[in-house]
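Hi R.,

As promised, here are both runs. First protein below:
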Amino acid sequence: MKNIIVGFLMSYDYDKLKQSIPAVYNEADKIYLAIDHEYRTWKGTTFSVVPEFYEWLEDMDVDNKIEIYRDDFYRPELSTIQNDTRERHLLSLKMGEGNWFIQVDADEVFIDFKQFVDTLKSKNHFLENPKANPIQIAGFLINIYKYLDDGLLFVDAPTKVMLATNYPNYKRARNTKERIIYTNNVLLHECLSRTEAELTFKLENWGHSHQVNKEFFPKWKKANKDNYKTLKNLFYLDPHIWKSLDYFPTQNVTEIKYLIESNPKLQPSTSFLLKKNFGQWFKFLGPFKKSKIAFESYF
């Protein structure tokens, strides 16, 4: 039986770990929190962690699964995205070999982590010779755009996210640029669900800080339950990636899970997954390329 080891990056948004860690805790065998030993972001800006957070961490870690991994994760000669990729590589070395490398960001909350674990276990044959058969396991994010007093706004089309790999040769953040296996696992992404000051800090200190779209903040600030249908092209990098918004009348994760499961638009269909996975199989292992693994194993 392979262990389920989960790695989180802990930085200025550490408080969001209070939702993302409990979502995976019961099914995980080991959890690592990677944090710069001098509390620096990938841009070199310093941050602090209140003592109460460590007290919360100790109280919730009833099975002693969590280990804090401190290291030098900031190199001034590197860009923010290069420091991002480097930290993920160092974290993977800490996580060890022979298991799935699962990396989750602090602002990503699994809707059903047990389902994801079952997905990985069904593909454990990829762990037999990972260097020869490197793959990535992808899921989908429901991107929360903004919290409101009586609910939240979210992007109405899920986006893919790399969640695990058998061979962590990261090229850009979590992306190894190897073959992707798409799965029907869904997470809530609290990427923009912050105060204006917190969001400004995030966008200035994260891996894509130099690419932020200048039109993003005016739209984000004015978005509300009454006007969200009129707002278009909302992504903070290339605006067209997030075309439009929708609304959940709740902020409760259990209720949101039900709303996601009852809305086909928010879950990848079987036909969509088959199409995407066939495309990846053809690209990396198609009929003119040799493979030791049967075609059926990629679906």
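And here is the second one, sequence first, then its structure tokens:
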Amino acid sequence: MGDIERMTIPMPAEMAAVVKSAVDAGDYASTSEVVRAALRDWKTKRALQIEELAALKADIDAGLADVAAGRVKDFDSARIVERGRKLLAARSPSV
């Protein structure tokens, strides 16, 4: 783990109870281990959010480039709704 830095982190009583409960249940050896696991999960989630945001920005840029180049179609809400219904029906399990 390298260098260890000690930190004091205030948290609401409800969160502290959850952390202590995880340790008491034997899921973790210490409260520090719970916090480290939570931070690892947060770090992974944050990296995915950053990737998704970058992909969204790239899609927006591509869309704006299409508009600027005249590669657009007339807005047809009925066509969009129908496409959405077809996609939803394809995902829904048959009853």
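A quick note on the second one: The first helix runs from residue 13 to 24. Let me know what you think.

Best,
J.
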